[in-house]
Amino acid sequence: MISNEIRARVLNDALPYIQRYNNKVVVVKYGGNAMTNETLKQAVMSDIVLLHLVGIKVVLVHGGGPEINDMLGRLGIESKFINGLRYTDAATVDVVKMVLAGKVNKDLVTLLAQNNGNAVGLCGIDEQMLLAEREVGENGEDYGYVGHITKVNTKPITDAIANDVIPVIATVACDEKGQTYNVNADTAAARIAAELKAENLILMTDIAGLLRDKDDPSTLIPFVNVSEVPFLKRKGIISGGMIPKIDCCVEAVRRGVKKTAIIDGRVPHSILIEILSSEGIGTQFK
Fold it and tell me: Per residue in 15-51, pLDDT tens?
Protein backbone atom coordinates (compact mmCIF):
# COMPACT_ATOMS: atom_id res chain seq x y z
CA MET A 1 0.00 0.00 0.00
CA ILE A 2 1.43 3.39 -1.03
CA SER A 3 1.25 6.04 1.66
CA ASN A 4 -0.23 9.47 1.05
CA GLU A 5 3.21 10.96 1.69
CA ILE A 6 4.71 8.94 -1.18
CA ARG A 7 1.80 9.85 -3.44
CA ALA A 8 2.36 13.54 -2.67
CA ARG A 9 6.09 13.21 -3.34
CA VAL A 10 5.47 11.52 -6.70
CA LEU A 11 3.09 14.28 -7.77
CA ASN A 12 5.52 16.97 -6.61
CA ASP A 13 8.39 15.35 -8.55
CA ALA A 14 6.21 15.21 -11.68
CA LEU A 15 5.18 18.88 -11.47
CA PRO A 16 8.17 20.38 -13.39
CA TYR A 17 7.56 17.98 -16.27
CA ILE A 18 3.83 18.67 -16.31
CA GLN A 19 4.67 22.38 -16.51
CA ARG A 20 7.26 21.79 -19.24
CA TYR A 21 4.83 19.85 -21.43
CA ASN A 22 1.71 21.90 -20.66
CA ASN A 23 -0.02 22.85 -23.90
CA LYS A 24 2.66 21.04 -25.94
CA VAL A 25 2.06 18.28 -28.48
CA VAL A 26 3.35 14.77 -27.78
CA VAL A 27 2.93 12.13 -30.49
CA VAL A 28 2.78 8.53 -29.28
CA LYS A 29 3.15 5.65 -31.72
CA TYR A 30 1.34 2.73 -30.16
CA GLY A 31 1.99 -0.86 -31.13
CA GLY A 32 3.81 -4.03 -30.20
CA ASN A 33 3.02 -6.11 -27.11
CA ALA A 34 1.40 -3.14 -25.37
CA MET A 35 -1.30 -3.34 -28.03
CA THR A 36 -2.07 -7.05 -27.65
CA ASN A 37 -1.78 -7.44 -23.86
CA GLU A 38 -5.08 -6.29 -22.35
CA THR A 39 -3.54 -5.18 -19.03
CA LEU A 40 -0.89 -3.10 -20.78
CA LYS A 41 -3.51 -1.70 -23.16
CA GLN A 42 -5.58 -0.44 -20.25
CA ALA A 43 -2.46 1.14 -18.69
CA VAL A 44 -1.60 2.94 -21.94
CA MET A 45 -5.13 4.29 -22.33
CA SER A 46 -5.27 5.55 -18.72
CA ASP A 47 -1.83 7.16 -19.15
CA ILE A 48 -2.96 9.01 -22.27
CA VAL A 49 -6.11 10.28 -20.55
CA LEU A 50 -4.05 11.42 -17.55
CA LEU A 51 -1.59 13.31 -19.76
CA HIS A 52 -4.49 14.91 -21.61
CA LEU A 53 -6.13 16.01 -18.36
CA VAL A 54 -2.95 17.73 -17.12
CA GLY A 55 -2.78 19.80 -20.31
CA ILE A 56 -0.53 17.74 -22.60
CA LYS A 57 -1.85 17.48 -26.17
CA VAL A 58 -1.42 13.78 -26.93
CA VAL A 59 -1.76 12.53 -30.51
CA LEU A 60 -2.05 8.72 -30.64
CA VAL A 61 -0.85 7.05 -33.85
CA HIS A 62 -1.31 3.29 -34.14
CA GLY A 63 -0.62 0.30 -36.31
CA GLY A 64 -2.17 -3.13 -35.90
CA GLY A 65 -0.03 -5.82 -37.48
CA PRO A 66 -1.25 -8.75 -35.34
CA GLU A 67 -4.91 -7.89 -36.00
CA ILE A 68 -4.21 -7.61 -39.74
CA ASN A 69 -2.45 -10.99 -39.71
CA ASP A 70 -5.40 -12.52 -37.87
CA MET A 71 -7.96 -11.20 -40.35
CA LEU A 72 -5.88 -12.21 -43.37
CA GLY A 73 -5.65 -15.72 -41.91
CA ARG A 74 -9.40 -15.88 -41.43
CA LEU A 75 -9.90 -14.85 -45.05
CA GLY A 76 -7.29 -17.30 -46.33
CA ILE A 77 -4.99 -14.55 -47.63
CA GLU A 78 -1.30 -15.32 -47.21
CA SER A 79 0.88 -12.73 -45.42
CA LYS A 80 4.02 -11.97 -47.39
CA PHE A 81 6.89 -9.68 -46.37
CA ILE A 82 9.66 -8.17 -48.50
CA ASN A 83 12.55 -6.41 -46.71
CA GLY A 84 10.40 -6.24 -43.59
CA LEU A 85 7.47 -4.57 -45.37
CA ARG A 86 4.13 -6.28 -45.82
CA TYR A 87 3.48 -6.96 -49.50
CA THR A 88 0.08 -5.37 -49.99
CA ASP A 89 -1.98 -6.43 -52.99
CA ALA A 90 -5.49 -5.13 -53.72
CA ALA A 91 -7.19 -7.65 -51.41
CA THR A 92 -4.71 -7.03 -48.59
CA VAL A 93 -4.98 -3.24 -48.73
CA ASP A 94 -8.76 -3.55 -48.31
CA VAL A 95 -8.21 -5.71 -45.22
CA VAL A 96 -5.63 -3.26 -43.85
CA LYS A 97 -8.08 -0.37 -44.22
CA MET A 98 -10.93 -2.37 -42.70
CA VAL A 99 -8.92 -3.59 -39.70
CA LEU A 100 -6.94 -0.45 -38.90
CA ALA A 101 -9.54 2.24 -39.57
CA GLY A 102 -12.66 0.20 -38.85
CA LYS A 103 -11.76 -2.06 -35.94
CA VAL A 104 -8.51 -1.21 -34.14
CA ASN A 105 -9.05 2.54 -34.32
CA LYS A 106 -12.57 2.40 -32.94
CA ASP A 107 -11.58 -0.09 -30.24
CA LEU A 108 -8.97 2.39 -29.00
CA VAL A 109 -11.44 5.28 -29.05
CA THR A 110 -13.82 3.12 -27.01
CA LEU A 111 -11.10 2.25 -24.47
CA LEU A 112 -10.20 5.91 -24.05
CA ALA A 113 -13.88 6.70 -23.47
CA GLN A 114 -14.06 3.96 -20.84
CA ASN A 115 -11.20 5.78 -19.08
CA ASN A 116 -13.21 9.02 -19.25
CA GLY A 117 -11.20 10.35 -22.17
CA ASN A 118 -12.70 12.29 -25.05
CA ALA A 119 -11.24 10.92 -28.30
CA VAL A 120 -11.98 10.86 -32.02
CA GLY A 121 -10.91 8.18 -34.48
CA LEU A 122 -9.21 9.36 -37.67
CA CYS A 123 -7.26 7.76 -40.48
CA GLY A 124 -4.88 9.12 -43.08
CA ILE A 125 -7.61 9.14 -45.71
CA ASP A 126 -9.72 11.68 -43.77
CA GLU A 127 -9.34 15.08 -45.46
CA GLN A 128 -6.34 13.52 -47.26
CA MET A 129 -4.41 13.76 -44.00
CA LEU A 130 -1.69 11.44 -45.31
CA LEU A 131 -1.00 11.67 -49.02
CA ALA A 132 1.23 8.93 -50.36
CA GLU A 133 2.72 7.48 -53.48
CA ARG A 134 3.71 3.91 -54.21
CA GLU A 135 6.84 2.77 -52.36
CA VAL A 136 9.59 1.25 -54.51
CA GLY A 137 12.52 -0.62 -53.00
CA GLU A 138 16.13 0.43 -53.46
CA ASN A 139 16.57 -2.41 -55.94
CA GLY A 140 13.22 -1.86 -57.62
CA GLU A 141 11.26 -4.23 -55.34
CA ASP A 142 7.50 -4.11 -55.77
CA TYR A 143 5.68 -3.87 -52.43
CA GLY A 144 2.23 -3.52 -53.93
CA TYR A 145 0.09 -0.84 -52.29
CA VAL A 146 2.66 0.15 -49.68
CA GLY A 147 2.85 3.91 -49.54
CA HIS A 148 5.58 6.51 -49.11
CA ILE A 149 4.18 9.63 -47.45
CA THR A 150 4.54 12.74 -49.60
CA LYS A 151 2.41 15.25 -47.68
CA VAL A 152 0.70 15.63 -44.31
CA ASN A 153 -2.45 17.71 -43.84
CA THR A 154 -2.53 18.46 -40.12
CA LYS A 155 -5.92 20.22 -40.13
CA PRO A 156 -8.01 17.22 -38.94
CA ILE A 157 -5.50 16.73 -36.11
CA THR A 158 -5.28 20.36 -35.03
CA ASP A 159 -9.06 20.68 -35.23
CA ALA A 160 -9.40 17.78 -32.79
CA ILE A 161 -6.77 19.27 -30.47
CA ALA A 162 -8.47 22.67 -30.58
CA ASN A 163 -11.71 20.97 -29.50
CA ASP A 164 -9.91 19.33 -26.54
CA VAL A 165 -10.25 15.89 -28.11
CA ILE A 166 -7.53 13.21 -28.35
CA PRO A 167 -6.88 12.33 -32.02
CA VAL A 168 -6.42 8.59 -32.61
CA ILE A 169 -4.92 8.02 -36.05
CA ALA A 170 -4.90 4.82 -38.11
CA THR A 171 -1.98 4.74 -40.52
CA VAL A 172 -3.59 4.18 -43.88
CA ALA A 173 -3.02 6.80 -46.58
CA CYS A 174 -4.25 7.65 -50.05
CA ASP A 175 -3.08 9.38 -53.19
CA GLU A 176 -4.87 12.26 -54.90
CA LYS A 177 -6.89 9.80 -57.00
CA GLY A 178 -8.18 8.02 -53.90
CA GLN A 179 -6.06 4.85 -54.03
CA THR A 180 -5.50 3.51 -50.52
CA TYR A 181 -1.99 2.67 -49.29
CA ASN A 182 -0.64 0.82 -46.30
CA VAL A 183 2.02 2.98 -44.60
CA ASN A 184 4.49 2.16 -41.85
CA ALA A 185 3.15 3.40 -38.50
CA ASP A 186 6.58 4.55 -37.20
CA THR A 187 7.15 6.57 -40.37
CA ALA A 188 3.67 8.08 -40.22
CA ALA A 189 4.08 9.04 -36.56
CA ALA A 190 7.43 10.70 -37.29
CA ARG A 191 6.03 12.74 -40.19
CA ILE A 192 2.95 13.76 -38.19
CA ALA A 193 5.12 14.78 -35.22
CA ALA A 194 7.34 16.86 -37.49
CA GLU A 195 4.45 18.66 -39.15
CA LEU A 196 2.91 19.41 -35.74
CA LYS A 197 6.31 20.61 -34.42
CA ALA A 198 5.77 18.24 -31.52
CA GLU A 199 7.70 18.52 -28.29
CA ASN A 200 8.24 14.77 -28.21
CA LEU A 201 7.73 11.68 -30.36
CA ILE A 202 7.53 8.40 -28.44
CA LEU A 203 7.76 5.06 -30.24
CA MET A 204 6.53 2.16 -28.13
CA THR A 205 8.39 -1.08 -28.88
CA ASP A 206 8.95 -4.55 -27.43
CA ILE A 207 12.52 -3.89 -26.27
CA ALA A 208 14.05 -1.62 -23.62
CA GLY A 209 15.48 0.80 -26.22
CA LEU A 210 18.80 0.91 -28.07
CA LEU A 211 21.20 -1.61 -26.51
CA ARG A 212 24.98 -1.80 -26.93
CA ASP A 213 24.53 -5.55 -26.73
CA LYS A 214 21.16 -6.57 -28.16
CA ASP A 215 21.06 -9.60 -25.84
CA ASP A 216 21.76 -7.64 -22.64
CA PRO A 217 19.05 -5.20 -21.45
CA SER A 218 21.51 -3.73 -18.92
CA THR A 219 23.46 -2.16 -21.82
CA LEU A 220 20.69 0.34 -22.59
CA ILE A 221 21.96 3.59 -24.11
CA PRO A 222 19.77 6.29 -22.51
CA PHE A 223 20.76 9.26 -24.73
CA VAL A 224 21.88 9.48 -28.35
CA ASN A 225 22.68 12.59 -30.36
CA VAL A 226 21.40 12.17 -33.92
CA SER A 227 24.91 12.97 -35.19
CA GLU A 228 26.10 9.74 -33.51
CA VAL A 229 23.71 7.48 -35.42
CA PRO A 230 25.92 6.81 -38.51
CA PHE A 231 28.80 5.76 -36.22
CA LEU A 232 26.52 3.45 -34.20
CA LYS A 233 25.33 1.87 -37.46
CA ARG A 234 28.91 1.26 -38.59
CA LYS A 235 29.68 -0.34 -35.22
CA GLY A 236 26.68 -2.64 -35.64
CA ILE A 237 25.01 -1.32 -32.48
CA ILE A 238 22.12 -0.07 -34.60
CA SER A 239 21.15 -2.98 -36.83
CA GLY A 240 18.26 -5.06 -38.10
CA GLY A 241 14.77 -3.92 -37.16
CA MET A 242 16.10 -1.01 -35.09
CA ILE A 243 17.44 0.76 -38.19
CA PRO A 244 14.07 1.96 -39.57
CA LYS A 245 12.80 2.93 -36.10
CA ILE A 246 15.89 4.99 -35.33
CA ASP A 247 15.87 6.50 -38.83
CA CYS A 248 12.33 7.71 -38.04
CA CYS A 249 13.59 9.30 -34.81
CA VAL A 250 16.45 11.02 -36.61
CA GLU A 251 14.17 12.28 -39.37
CA ALA A 252 11.70 13.66 -36.84
CA VAL A 253 14.42 15.55 -34.94
CA ARG A 254 15.85 16.96 -38.17
CA ARG A 255 12.36 18.13 -39.14
CA GLY A 256 11.92 20.05 -35.89
CA VAL A 257 10.68 17.65 -33.20
CA LYS A 258 12.42 18.62 -29.93
CA LYS A 259 13.24 15.05 -28.96
CA THR A 260 12.21 11.50 -29.70
CA ALA A 261 12.30 8.34 -27.63
CA ILE A 262 12.10 4.59 -28.14
CA ILE A 263 10.59 3.02 -25.02
CA ASP A 264 9.59 -0.42 -23.80
CA GLY A 265 5.83 -0.71 -24.15
CA ARG A 266 5.89 -3.92 -22.08
CA VAL A 267 6.52 -1.86 -18.94
CA PRO A 268 3.27 -0.64 -17.35
CA HIS A 269 2.92 3.17 -17.44
CA SER A 270 6.09 3.51 -19.53
CA ILE A 271 4.71 6.68 -21.16
CA LEU A 272 4.33 8.39 -17.78
CA ILE A 273 7.83 7.33 -16.73
CA GLU A 274 9.27 8.70 -19.98
CA ILE A 275 7.50 12.07 -19.87
CA LEU A 276 7.20 12.80 -16.15
CA SER A 277 10.66 11.87 -14.88
CA SER A 278 14.23 13.08 -15.41
CA GLU A 279 15.62 9.63 -16.24
CA GLY A 280 12.98 8.48 -18.70
CA ILE A 281 12.75 4.80 -19.51
CA GLY A 282 14.16 4.13 -22.98
CA THR A 283 16.55 5.77 -25.42
CA GLN A 284 16.16 9.48 -26.18
CA PHE A 285 17.33 11.06 -29.43
CA LYS A 286 18.09 14.77 -29.75
Answer: 888 888 899 999 999 987 678 888 889 999 999 999 9
Q: Report the 10 Å Cβ neighbour count for 113.
A: 14
Check if the beta carbon of residue 142 is closer than 8 Å to that of residue 153: no
| Model pLDDT, residue 281 | 85
Contact criterion met (CB below 8 Å) for 262 and 205: yes
Question: Against a cut of 0.90, is the pTM above it?
Answer: yes
What secondary structure letter does DSSP report for 220? B
CA distances from 280 to 46, 110, 182, 202, 273 (A): 18, 29, 32, 11, 6
CB contact at 8 A, 263 and 281? yes
Give Cα separations from 244 to 53, 83, 170, 214, 241 (angstroms). 32, 11, 19, 16, 6
Q: Report the alpha-carbon distance of residue 76 to residue 54 in Å, rounded.
A: 46
Note whether 156 and 168 are within 8 A (CB): no
Q: What DSSP state is assigned to residue 226?
A: G
Report CA torsion sign: 101, 106, 112, 116. Answer: positive
* DSSP helix/strand/coil, 34: helix
| Each residue's pLDDT tens digit, 157-186 | 999 999 999 999 999 999 999 999 999 999
Distance in angstroms (rounded) separating the CA atoms of residues 117 and 128 = 26
How far apart CA 200 and CA 68 sit, in angstroms, is 28
Residue 22, class by beta-carbon neighbours within 10 Å (0-12 exposed, 13-18 middle, 19+ buried)?
exposed
